[in-house]
Amino acid sequence: MRYLLVDHITEWKAGESIRGVKNVAMSEDFLEFHFPKNPIMPGVMLLEAITQLTGWLEAASSDFTQWFLISGVNKCSFYGFAFPGDQVELRVEFVSSPGENRKVFKGTGMVQGKKKIAVEFEGSLVPFDELEDGEEQRRFFDLLTRNLGL
After folding, report:
1. CB-based contact 65:133 (threshold 8 Å)
2. Which of the 8 DSSP states describes residue 56?
3. CA geometry: angle at 50 spanning 47 and 51, to 5°?
4. pLDDT of residue 150
5. Distance between CA 23 and CA 148 in Å, rounded?
6. What is the reported pLDDT for 34?
């Protein structure tokens, strides 16, 4: 199973920052058991959405030659829940590069202006073609950014 947790990329600046949206839908299977009759998006899924958004930043910034894989969380705080029907506004910013092919980022997730998650994390840059077909993912990025070339 694969979760795609970024529904729309609203803006990005190569090598610096990216913003996107995750729409929490009642039909998402992870809500069935988290928690029964009281569905909330698991905090780790918010972290995964931020990490995926970081991957898109690195892919687009490198002309789809690199992807970001998280390896550690330096700080993470949760401030509330994301419920079905919520639109989570995600933001990621580059912090530093402590070594070759290593980067540190900070990210936030907000619902209607209220912070739900703040995180600082790090990871490695890996060759994109070891994970996915670059051209196919470039087309998917165009869809996420609404750059359909029409």
Report:
1. no
2. H
3. 85
4. 42
5. 21
6. 86
Q: Starting at the edge strand that comes first in sequence, how are the strands of the sheet with 114-127 ordered?
A: 8-13, 17-23, 87-99, 102-111, 114-127, 66-78
Q: How far is residue 126's CA from residue 128's CA, in Å, rounded to a whole number?
A: 6
From the list 117, 93, 114, the residue with the least C-alpha distance to 105 is: 93
How far apart CA 78 and CA 122 sit, in angstroms, is: 18
The reply to whether the predicted model has a pTM over 0.85 is yes
Q: In sequence order, what are the residues at sequence separation of 6 or more whose Cβ sits closer than 8 angstroms to the Cβ of residue 102?
A: 122, 123, 124, 125
- Interhelix angle for 134-144 vs 43-61, to 10°? 110
Q: For the structural domain made of 8-142, what CATH number should be given?
A: 3.10.129.10
Residue 129 has, within 13 A of its CA and on its CB side, a CA count of 3
Active-site residues: which are they?
34
Structure tokens at 92: 């990621």
Q: Where are the domains of the chain?
A: 8-142
Q: What is the DSSP letter of 14?
A: T
pLDDT, position 1: 56
pLDDT in tens, 57-88: 999 999 999 999 999 999 999 999 999 999 99
Residue with tokens 């540190």: 104
